[in-house]
């Protein structure tokens, strides 16, 4: 899936964040919390799997946090917009689109930055990107798919009008490709690795879009106070899962392989195409005025406007919230 921008400086000023945390925690409190769990929606993407690893390791009580796996990012967006779920794992371009439509949300965590995990793969007879002219290209009906395809085609002076777009939901990418219903597909891990193992070739990946595909955790603004402790549970579980992946990689990949139907070796290879910022890096990304993440989102917004993927420049200055991470850090 997605996700890149221009470089982001990861400078952590520990003293400043400590002071900010103390000042902010009093403000980020108040209303009694609901007894209902926080519903967090995701689609199948290797970068989101630490959430399911955290659940498998017992860090999420189903009375406080429930993961809702959707067939595609489009479905995640619909459920988030309709308030069927209160939190969601989304790409930054999807966040910008939701903000353009007026949805009040808060970005509370950078989950991962794609460094090769998103790609365009094609049948072996497709020689290169230029050879996509007139070909059938499968794309999920989402901002990310359009964004990646637009950026790739621009490299060879093509536009989406030069290819035949076939709308394919994420859970159908592999099937449509193997049944010869499409010649190429804009996809992501774990489907990328499975198609490459089946003989597909890679024409383009997110290493050519540095820092433009960023995955984030967002929460509806009207649910933020109501689910404070539940959100802290999610954040703590996320970083515990990242730590487990680092300290017990073999067991972690074995657990994930059962869920996403990749071998542990394929998971290891796929993880090389992702970078998951740790707690201090996240504090650096989300903290400050403007935050590094806000500046990154602004650059992405400009790219999307230039490519007609957004109708206007979108600013996220009031939507990026480091307070939950600060509370976690202070505990």
TrEMBL record:
Keywords, alphabetical: Signal
Primary localization: periplasm
Domain of life of the native organism: Bacteria
Record carries keyword Signal: yes
Compartments it resides in: Periplasm
GO CC annotations, alphabetized: periplasmic space
Protein family: Belongs to the bacterial solute-binding protein SsuA/TauA family.
Protein name: Aliphatic sulfonates-binding protein
């Amino acid at each position: 899936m997605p996700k890149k921008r221009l470089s982001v400086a990861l400078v952590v000023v520990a003293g400043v964040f400590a002071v900010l945390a103390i000042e902010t925690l009093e403000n980020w409190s108040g209303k009694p919390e609901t007894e209902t769990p926080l519903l967090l929606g995701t689609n199948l993407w290797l970068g989101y799997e630490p959430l399911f690893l955290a659940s498998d390791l017992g860090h999420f009580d189903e009375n406080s946090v429930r993961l809702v796996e959707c067939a595609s990012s489009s479905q995640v967006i619909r459920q988030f917009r309709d308030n069927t779920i209160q939190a969601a794992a989304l790409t930054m371009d999807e966040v910008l689109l939701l903000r353009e439509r007026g949805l009040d949300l808060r970005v509370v965590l950078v989950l991962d930055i794609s460094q090769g995990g998103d790609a365009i793969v094609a049948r072996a007879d497709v020689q290169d990107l230029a050879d996509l002219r007139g070909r059938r290209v499968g794309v999920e009906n989402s901002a990310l798919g359009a964004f990646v395809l637009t950026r790739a085609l621009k490299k060879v002076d093509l536009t989406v009008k030069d290819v035949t777009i076939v709308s394919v939901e994420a859970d159908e990418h592999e099937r449509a490709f193997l049944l010869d219903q499409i010649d190429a597909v804009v996809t992501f891990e774990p489907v990328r690795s499975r198609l490459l193992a089946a003989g597909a070739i890679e024409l383009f990946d997110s290493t050519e879009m540095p820092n433009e595909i960023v995955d984030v955790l967002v929460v509806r603004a009207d649910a933020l106070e109501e689910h404070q402790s539940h959100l802290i549970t999610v954040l703590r579980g996320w970083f515990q899962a990242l730590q487990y992946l680092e300290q017990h990689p073999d067991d972690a990949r074995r657990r994930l392989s059962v869920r996403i139907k990749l071998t542990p070796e394929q998971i290891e290879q796929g993880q090389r195409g992702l970078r998951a910022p740790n707690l201090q890096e996240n504090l650096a990304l989300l903290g400050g005025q403007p935050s590094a993440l806000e500046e990154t989102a602004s650059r992405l917004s400009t790219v999307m406007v230039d490519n007609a993927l957004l109708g206007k420049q979108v600013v996220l200055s009031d939507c990026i919230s480091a307070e939950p991470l600060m509370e976690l850090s202070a505990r």
